Amino acid sequence: MQIVNSLKNRRTYYNIKKELPVSIEKVIEMVEEITELVPDAFNMKSSRVFIVYGEMQNKLWDKIYDTFGGKVPKEKIDSFLAGYGTILYFYNGKLVSDMQNKFPAYAANFPVWANQASGMLQLAVWSGLRELEIGASLQHYNPVIDKAVKEMFNIPEEYLLVAEMPFGAIGQEPAQKEKEDIKQRVQVIS
Questions:
Q1: Contacts (Cβ under 8 Å, ≥6 apart) of 135
Q2: Distance from C-alpha of 165 to C-alpha of 14, rounded to nearest angstrom
């Protein structure tokens, strides 16, 4: 099964480089296609994606480091800055709020569903990047960086930052994962 192979190959890559084995246009095309295909409750289409690369990649991670005032090790930030780019994942909070007003019986669920849709999008893009021989990791420096990132890229206030995904050419493969006892997490009832 192709999906299983994609998930097996998708790993957290911290050692990435400022190059790509394919064109950035190919990456953008893949992200656009996956964003269109990933489902969202009530067909909300709440996810928003920003692909940052080039000089703005450097500025983004420098800004993130500065925002933390040195509380995050520079080496860690530099490992993300070393990548070709970063995908920023948001969801449109105003759209979610509008859906809450339109369907009050489900109001509490819309933010949850928007986060679920974002998670599915993140995993699909992460797997898609790996199919292109690109390494990536998923980071969560939000909410500390939210204001700085929104100001930097003129992102609407109603967009809520969910995650950051630095990506680039694979510098080094991660260590093998240890197999878990999956029966502890998957139960079958018949």
A1: 11, 13, 15, 16, 129, 167, 168, 169, 170, 171
A2: 11
Per-residue tokens: 83:
């990548």
Asked if 122 and 79 touch (Cβ cutoff 8 Å), the reply is: no
Cis peptide before 166 (omega within 30 of 0): no
> Bridge partners of 138?
none
CA distances from 120 to 34, 156, 169 (A): 10, 23, 23
Task: Give yes or no for a contact between 142 and 72, defined as CB atoms under 8 angstroms apart.
Answer: no
pLDDT (tens, 9 = 90+) of the chain, 190 residues, equals 799 999 999 999 999 999 999 999 999 999 999 999 999 999 999 999 999 999 999 999 999 999 999 999 999 999 999 999 999 999 999 999 999 999 999 999 999 999 999 999 999 999 999 999 999 999 999 999 999 999 999 999 999 999 999 999 999 999 988 889 999 999 999 9
Strand-pairing partners, residue 163, are 89
Q: Which residue has the tokens 């898609």?
A: 128
